[in-house]
Amino acid sequence: MAADTFAPDVNGAAKFAERLAAGLVSRGHEVQVVAPSTSRKFGTWTEMHEGQPMVVHRLHSWRWYPHDWLRFALPWIIRRESRHILDSFRPDVVHFQSHINMGRGVTIEAEKRGLRIIGTNHVMPENMVKFSLVPVGLQDRVIKAAWRAARRTFGRAEAVTTPTRSAAEFLEKYTGLTGVHAISCGIDAENYTPNFEPRSENRILFVGRVTGEKQIDVLLQAAARLDPALKAQIEIVGGGDQKRNLEHLADTLGIRANVTFTGYVTDEELRAAYSRSTLFAMPSIAELQSIATMEAMASGLPIVAANAMALPHLVHNDENGYLFRPGDAQDLADKITRVLSLPAADLERFKRESLKMIEAHDIRRTLNTFECLYRGEPVTDTVTNGASTRSTD
């Protein structure tokens, strides 16, 4: 498994790769991971992920300073190390998690050896450019070049996947690929604890990277528009380059006392944050699936989310929450108010609907599907609204 970002990195792609690798190991498969080192220390050793041991090859990497944590390995190092790893490990399948440096280098070497290649896309070049040093006037050209590069790398794969049908259609549109499979990242709902006890306060939770595309500023602006009688508290879980700017915005809006920035937390602390919350808010406009939203649903939370990208697959109006117009702080405030003002019976109905909808995203189903892809068997793509499927070969 080749990944440009892997645990302990905190993001959806890294979490998916970790859960997939650990799930496969728990089923008796031998899995090795190649990823950039997370520090100046690099090499090969056994790591524990999700309670499972696996060999991880950490390649010599450098910090990408426009981003707050991202590290990358140089292409010629990836090619050299890939040759060594593939020749010594001799895998049956190579599964790459993005078309960037790691995916490109590993697939070139895997193709030479006639190995079965599976690719999964978690990346939108439009978001990557925001963390680059490319002048604004050249960004459109760079984005187009990035999609061409994606076409070349994913073109080496026997099967290509994304987390949702909308993300699959997006990838097909910009690369010209066809037959992209929509396979949920999946979560283990048993790891989360729904709490149906009455809340002593209205706590609105956001979980994710504290970066521009998440549009947390819209959530803070919405919070400033809420009726003080709701006594809403905002909890922002995650770290990122926008934390100071958002803290300043909260001060400017006069709501700093009602906003908590917890930074990065442990898995146990994260589950506790879900359990004590009343509502989960996801204002992001760039979610190819949103594992955090799925975790909130598995915790029995109603959701208010932007009507953008994959979020409409997870949030159904007046069933488990509401969608709001992306970037519209007033509409977000109105939808939050609507949920926080629900009678107890209706609030419980929303919570139970979130639990029902998340059943379609069970990690076991995801593992079964990828095992079929690895063996070259036909799979059934789940359109991740929990309602319909389509068969593909």
Automatic annotation (TrEMBL):
Keyword terms: Glycosyltransferase, Transferase
Domain Glycosyl transferase family: 197-353
GO molecular function: glycosyltransferase activity
InterPro entries the UniProt entry points to: Glyco_trans_1 (IPR001296), Glyco_trans_4-like_N (IPR028098), Glycosyltransferase_grp1 (IPR050194)
All residue ranges annotated as the Glycosyltransferase subfamily 4-like N-terminal domain in the record: 10-190
GO BP term (any one): carbohydrate derivative biosynthetic process
Record Gene3D superfamilies: Glycogen Phosphorylase B (3.40.50.2000)
Protein name: D-inositol 3-phosphate glycosyltransferase
Phylogenetic classification of the source organism: Bacteria, Bacillati, Actinomycetota, Actinomycetes, Micrococcales
